[in-house]
Amino acid sequence: MNMQPSHPSSARALLHSVFGYSVFRMQQEAIVDHVVTGGDALVLMPTGGGKSLCYQIPAMLRPGVGVIVSPLIALMQDQVDALKLNGVRAALLNSTLTQEAAREVEQSLLNSELDMLYVAPERLLMARTLNLLERCQVSLFAIDEAHCVSQWGHDFRPEYVQLSILHQRFPAVPRIALTATADGSTRREIIQRLALEDARQFISSFDRPNIRYRISENNGNSREQLLRFIRNEHPDDAGIVYCLSRKRVDEVASWLSSKDLIALPYHAGLSAEQRQQNQQRFLREDSVIIVATIAFGMGIDKPDVRFVAHLNLPKSLEAYYQETGRAGRDGQPANAWMMYGLQDVITLKKMQATSEAPEDIKRVEHHKLDAMLGLCELTSCRRQALLRYFGDELPDPCGNCDTCLQPPETWDATAAAQKALSCVHRTGQRFGVSYLVDVLLGKNDERIRRFGHDSVSTYGIGKEHTQNEWRDLYRQLIARGMLAVDLEGHGGLHLIEASRPVLRGEQQLYLRKFSAKTKNRTRKSGSANRFAETGNNKLWQALRSRRQQLADEKGIPAYMIFHDATLAEMLENRPENLAQLANVTGVGERKLADYGEAFLDVLNEYRDIETDSQTDTEAETLQLFRSGLEPDGIAEARGLKTTTIYNHLANAITRGEVQLEEVVPLATTQLDSIRFAIESNESGQRLKPVFDSLEGEYSYEVLRCVRAAMAC
Ligand code: ADP
Ligand code: ZN
C-alpha cells in the first residue's frame, strides 16, 4: 500500500482504512482469517455478496503480491482502477496491454511494488509469466469465476483446467477459488480439477434480501405500466429492461426516450461500436436505462443498478435469477419487476412445441418453463419458492416480495374453470383463447355462426365475467398445466389428463383473484431515490452531480468514486468535517483525501440553506457576481469552492440571467473552438473527451459554462 506509515496490520483495520467499511459481511471475516494464515479456500457466495474483499484483504496482509486470475478481461481494468482509487497498488496483465506497458508491470512486480496483480488465465499459464512469478514473492492465488473450470457449464474455459499447475509449481502459496454458481456438481468439479480437496469450503446462502421480487399480469399495456413504474419509483436510477426480441427492444427504448428518460437499446443487431458506446454510457453515467435482449449483462458488474424489469417471461428460473441478480449488487434496495401475460405463456409453449430439440432436452425445457410459470402464479412468498428451487430453505416468508407485501386474494374458480374447459371441449379443441372467450361471452360473430358454435351449450354462459377476466383464467389454467397449446403452433388449446378432475367436479380450484384493471402496486420499494420523498432530493441530486463531475474529470464510472449507499449515508448523517466523513461507509483514507473536501463542500452548502432552496444560494452568488466580484473572490467570500460558484453561474447562464461572455472572458475564436469540441463530442454528457480534445487548455468550469450557454 501507498500509505506506508499507517500500514494497518489487522483485517478489520484494513477494511476500514482502505475500503471505508466498518463491518465484514456474512462469512467474509472467517474467509479472510483462513486465507491470511495460509489456508486454501473454496468460496460460494451470491453475486454482490462481497467476494472480492475475501482475497483483496489477505493479499494486502500477507507479504508479496496477490495474483488474481479472472476470465473477464473487460472487468479487470475496472477492478484495478477501483483499487487504485483506494490507494492500493494494483496492476493487470492481459492481451489489451502493449508490450511496453506489460514490461513495466513486470518490472514493478520484480521490484515488489505491487499488492495485487490481475491476470488473464492464458497469460498466467505462459512460461514467461510463471517464471516471472517464481522470481517474486506471491502472497496468494485467487481464482475468480472458478466455475469456468466446469466442462458442463456455459462459461467453460479450457485454460482454467490447467490452473491446477499452480498447486504443483507454488505448493506453499494459498489458493482461494470463488464463484457464484451454486450447484453441487459444479462445486465438485472445481475441487477436483483445481486440486482443492483440502480447501475449506465457505458456502453462503444465495438469497439476495435487498431485491424485491414483483410479478404482475400484463393486461395489454405493459409499456405504460413500465413507464409508471419507472416514473414512480426510479425516476433517475439506472436500470435494465429485458425484452424478447430486437424489434421490441428498439421500440421500447425509443418510446421511453420520448418520455424524457435516457433509454438506450442493446442487442445483437446493433454494430459492435454502437453496443459498446451504449454500454459505456450505462456504466459511466447515472440514470441510464438499458433496454436489451438477454445478450446484455454478462460481465457487467455495475453495483448501482436499481431495477431490472422484464417485459417478457424468461425461459427458466435460472435465467430469471441470473438476470434479476444484476440489480442491487451494492446491497441497497432494488426491484426485480416483471410483467407477464397470456401471450407470453402461449408464445413460449408454442416455441417449445415446435422446437427441433431432442426429446430429452425438450422435456427438461418444459419442466423449467413450468417452474417459471409456477413462480408467476404463486400466491405465497416468491423468495421462498425461488430459493427452494435452488436448494436453499428460507424458514419464514420474506416480507420483501409482492405476495408478502400484498397477499393476493384467491377465489374458488372451480365453476368458472369448468365452463372454460368445457368450452374448449364443445368447440372441438382447436381454437385459441380469443375465440373461446367470445363464445363464452356469447358474441354475435360471423365466424362463430359459421362453425355453428352459437348453438353449443357454452355459448353465452360466461357473461358474469369480463373478457379480461376470462383471458386471465385461461392463462392460469395453461400455466397450471390444465390446458395444452397445440403442436402445430397456431395457439389452439386442448384438454389434457390434468383437466379431467376439475371438469368432473372432483377437484376444487383456487386461483388468484382477477387483477382489477391493473391495480397498480405503487408501494415504494425504498430505492436509493427514496430521498426524493423526504425533501432531501436537492441535496441528493447535488451529491450525485458532484460525483458525476469528479468521475467525468477522471474518465471513470461515477460509482467508482462512491456508491449510492455512501452518498445516501452522507445524506442521512450529514458529516460536517473530514473526521466525520471518514466514518461514512465506503470512505477510506485515500478517497477521503482525494474527494472529501469536494463532498463536504456540497454538504456544507446545503446545511445553511436547508429550508431555503438552491435558487437562494445561486441568487446570492449572482448578486456578488453582479457587484463585480470574480468567481474566485465569491468563493472566498462565501466559503465555497470555486467549482460550486461556477456551477451557480452556469445555471444562471442556462436561465438567461447572465451572459456567457460576462462569466468567461475569452475571445470569440476561443469560444468557437470550445463549442466545436462540445458539438463533436460523441459521448453524451461527459466532458472529459472535450477537455482532452482541447488538450486541457480550458478548465472544466469554463467548459461547463459554455455548454450551459449552448443549452439555452
Ligand atoms: P461479488 O464479487 O461477490 O459479486 P463484490 O466483491 O463486487 O461482490 O462486492 C459487492 C459490493 O459490496 C461491492 O460494491 C463492495 O464494495 C461491497 N461490499 C463488500 N463487502 C462489504 C462490506 N463488508 N461492507 C460494505 N460493503 C461491502
Ligand atoms: Zn416474500
Which ligands appear in the coordinates?
adenosine-5'-diphosphate, zinc ion
Helix content: 40-55%
| Broad structural category | alpha/beta
Count the beta strands: 17
CATH C-level class of the largest domain: Alpha Beta
Mind telling me the CATH superfamily name of the largest domain? Answer: P-loop containing nucleotide triphosphate hydrolases
Please characterize this protein's 3D structure:
This protein is 48% helix and 11% strand. With 712 residues, the protein is α/β, with parallel strands linked by helices. The protein has five domains: 8-203, P-loop containing nucleotide triphosphate hydrolases (Rossmann fold), CATH 3.40.50.300; 211-405, Rossmann fold, CATH 3.40.50; 410-512, Arc Repressor Mutant, subunit A (Orthogonal Bundle), CATH 1.10.10; 534-605, Orthogonal Bundle (DNA polymerase, domain 1); 616-710, Arc Repressor Mutant, subunit A (Orthogonal Bundle). The protein has a seven-stranded parallel sheet with strand order 3-4-2-5-6-1-7, with helices on both faces. The chain has a six-stranded parallel sheet with strand order 8-13-12-9-11-10, sandwiched between helices. It has a two-stranded antiparallel ribbon with strand order 14-17. A hairpin with a 7-residue loop joins β15 and β16. α19 (414-426) crosses α20 (433-441) and α20 packs across α22 (467-479). The longest helix is centred in the C-terminal third of the chain and has 20 residues, at 589-608. The chain is globular. The relative contact order is 0.08. Zinc ion binds next to α17 and α18.
